[in-house]
Amino acid sequence: MSTYFPKEGEIVRKWYVVDADGQTLGRLASQVARILMGKENPQYTPFLDTGDHVIVINAEKIKTTGVKAEQKQYHHYTGYPGGLRTEDFKNRMIRRPEAVIEAAVKRMLPKNKLAAHMLSKLNVYKGDKHPHQAQKPQDLKLEVREYKARKVAVS
Question: Between helices 25-37 and 97-108, what is the axis angle to 10°?
């Protein structure tokens, strides 16, 4: 008896809408990455893209824990000498909050050729409107776990 692997035509992809209002960035990104990979589906196969489409709305209302909002920085290198560019988290949230969520989800996907295909099924929008009504997306309620800062004893 051989192992069954789903064919490309047999994979049925659903559309989900996730509201980022009040969600913690990393926790939202990890749950969205699991849906994009297809780990929530019974036909999950690591080397096939069996994931669903995800629409994230209200990207500008995302939260971070601790002091990440003040300390976190995004770096990219232009390829030229002295071309390291750095941008603070606060500035990126003002300029392009969609890029913050996209970068967090991208880093949680597997580091292989399927990651680009999985990431193409992610759509992030600044407000609460999106142009994907024709796909009839379902609302997806993610677990909201409260973050409690630990008290550190100073000795």
Answer: 60
Separation between Cα atoms, residue 65 and residue 126, nearest integer Å: 20
Evaluate whether residue 86 is within a structural domain. Answer: no
- Total domains, the chain: 1
17: CATH: 3.90.1180.10
Residue 73 falls inside a structural domain = no
pTM, two decimals, is: 0.88
For 146-155, the pLDDT digits (tens) are: 667 777 776 6
- pLDDT for residue 14: 96
Q: How far apart (Å, rounded) are the C-alpha atoms in residues 51 and 101? A: 18
**CA torsion angle for 94, 96, 101, 103 (degrees, to 10)?**
-120
